[in-house]
């Protein structure tokens, strides 16, 4: 049995009619005699959809209980036993209830397909996994239920169910999608016209890309080389010259005239890599193409017209845009040129546009990647060996004559040595000098510049030819080796930059320092300006060289966009270094943008935190502060009342209530003020040497007697703290521990010395706190568990940690062995505090 086929109805939003279309398809198939059942369809109380279920066989669902509620899910086993030809499965991205056969419904569908059952299903565009972030940015809602894109892409048929936003909103207003009580909220939130239009565009583009993929696959499978003009695709052939910008803009205008036009800019480089266009110009043209909505492609090919035509036919292009040749008239003797060749061989299915520009007939002017320069010392040694070597060898051979053949081999050896050291020119000089010396000293007649035997002429000619050939090969190998080493270094640098782009680890200043070190410059600076008329400002700088205020003042400048440039001082860089410099410049711009985005995010986070604190503060004032005030006012009103004669015991009880309310109010206001000081950074600790046994006992005044046990050894070293802040921190910790400790279980406050630290541990035997909540309890206005509102505003632990960090200490929560929670307050020993402060700053900066 083969695998079943999957058909998906794709919609832009709920209510466009996917389920209705699926049920209509089911009725059509049943009329044709197909065995079709409803495995799972949810009509959501929509009358027209519910009516479409009439006459269709439904497989009974499986009931599952989860958290006291019974859910009805698709019964995969029942559908497999029924084994229909076609099964209808609604809501492909649905998450099944825990305890189901699979976690996701699309996994259930995979089982049905594997069993040979055809499946018809539905899904909305916002449920595709790859579009989750895009949909969230549009609608503000994060989709929890998603389906992998590959599952939908593998579908045999995908049918778009489309509806205009206005029609969908009318359906919503008429109550055809949601219940009446939800209509207004839906229309003003998720179903806004802008949201629906953006989702509709996503759906249309996704389906269009899927159709394009299918068309490419069909052309490949059927080996269709002829271009099908299903949509206008315009290929722009670039040479790296300045006319490329004109060609890209002209192609963009051509694309705008046709619906769905697409621009593909392509640069074709030779495989040997010895010639290349300007990296700076190509970077500008890449940016221009992408800004105009096109794409940029880099292709390798030795036959440029053939490579360009192959690329155009491969992407199913309909037009090619080329610039008029920049060659001068006499250069046409070498061939018709790329434009004429492409126009001749394009055939009837490709239109070729030859666009004139300002660079016509001005020569190509492209930079050529020259051979690698050898070091000055090697060149000097090469010339010395090439010129002086044959003379020295001639002197030696005059004493011992080995025969003409051996003499020629020795002179050839000197020529090869000159090529290895100094390159081609010293080798040519060595061959010339060696041939003259061979002719004068060793070829009959001796000591004359003539050659009697014609065979010796051939021998000397062969000697010169072999010498030149060997020198050329050696020189080419040296240049290629150096070029490969250079490209390897460039690849390592580009790999470093790519890693930084992904990780975002290097700051702007570190990157500029890396630029300066890489190119051996004195300084590197990133300059920017708001507009063409504004002055340049320095966004970041590295090195000790002279400051640069304008790109024109630098030895090397690399523009980044229209209003930013990377300026270097120290020396002028060769042309081949600008390719890597362009990558550094682009990364510097990214680092600057990342830094500014981070600053904006920090500011937004600070504002959000401030708003949250203010909101919580208002909530605390409205309830927790009002409660003791209400108690105080009630007690005072009772005492002042003349209608009741209060006994002394009653009066004492009312006065005690007033005192307790005032103490509680004082404690709450103190915590609120402390938290406000911490959030605004106005806490300035007065650090001095203090014994713990002088401060900790004073912090226990606000808790009942016999509720705390102290274990503070007298041998503990002195700590560097602010006595007031430490007392307040310990008091808050002890109060919190006593609040949650069971009756009869006193809180233990113990201290011990560890290296250059002193730990104060507040141990309780209460219910404890799970690991995932241990950090959350230190957040302002947080109460753990079901603590009542009267238990405080939830600032005690936040204030305690803030004061601890202000004194360069830490406060953490640990589990108490045997049950409960232990607060660990770590303080600096007085001797250690006199040394350097730790490099790791506390999370909350307090000044």
Can you summarize the main beta sheet? 6 strands, parallel
What's the pLDDT, averaged over the residues? 78
> Which structural class is indicated by helix and strand composition?
alpha/beta
Radius of gyration from the CA trace? 42 Å
Annotation field: number of helices: 25
Give the overall shape, derived from the CA principal axes: extended
How far apart the termini lie comes to 75 Å
Low-confidence stretches: 364-372, 786-793, 833-847
* Percentage of residues assigned to helices: 40-55%
**Percentage of residues in DSSP E strands:** 15-25%
For the biggest β-sheet, the strand order reads 3-2-6-7-1-8
Total beta strand runs: 24
The gist of it:
It is found in: Cell membrane; Membrane. With 847 residues, this protein is of the alpha/beta class.
Give a verbal description of the structure.
This protein is of the alpha/beta class and 847 residues long. The chain is built from 25 helices and 24 strands. A six-stranded parallel sheet has the order 3-2-6-7-1-8, sandwiched between helices. It has a five-stranded parallel sheet with strand order 11-10-9-12-13, sandwiched between helices. A five-stranded mixed sheet has the order 19-21-22-24-23. Helix 14 packs antiparallel against helix 15 (404-422), helix 14 packs parallel to helix 16 and helix 20 (626-640) runs antiparallel to helix 21 (648-680). Residues 364-372, 786-793 and 833-847 have low confidence and may be disordered. One of its GO terms (molecular function) is kinase activity. Residues 620-831 form the Histidine kinase domain. It holds the Pfam family KdpD. This is histidine kinase. The chain crosses the membrane at residues 380-397, 409-437, 457-478.
